[in-house]
Amino acid sequence: MITTVSQAQLKLGFQVAPTISTNRVDSETLLINVDNDGTGINLSLGPIADIQLTDNYYVSTGLLFTSKRVGFEVTESITGNSLSEEYSLQYLQIPATMKLFTNEIGLDKRIFFQFGGTFDFNIQQESESDLNVLVDDFRFFDISLLAGVGMEYQLGTTTIAYISITYHRGLIDAIDETNIGVIGDISLNNDYFALNFGVKF
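Predicted structure:
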């Protein structure tokens, strides 16, 4: 273990990712029906670190500021009237993933596969709607599974650019407290796709 740590190389960088977020909603409520209300475009960005274990295996982590969207469509069972409710959630995200690299597929180009998880800490939540019908509070902590594929390109002796697509699947119910007037249970999981652009030095 001492030998492995001493030989490991650390590459630091910065990543920016537009995301398309959606929600998985499960509800067992009286008087209202609750469903997911579409998708939203958000942003994730921050410093990243890749720790080399071997030529083809890396541990990848970082500290990312990540926005997520929560959208509900609420329909009254009796009248059929409906309304939309939307929240903006902001997280500090710590990835804990592995990157598996192929050998060069072309001059200075390598494909990699990334998998693992992220630990997300809720730092802010805002309602984008006039009324908060469903949710009083969201959980402070979330965990997501991450899977993706990408490609690196060696720009110089120490500079590497990369692009990847990742899917993030929320594992924890994001709702902590529903509105006291809601009769029944509502659970919500945050999912999103990210198109990641990054540079490592």
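Summary: The first strand starts at residue 10 and ends at 29.
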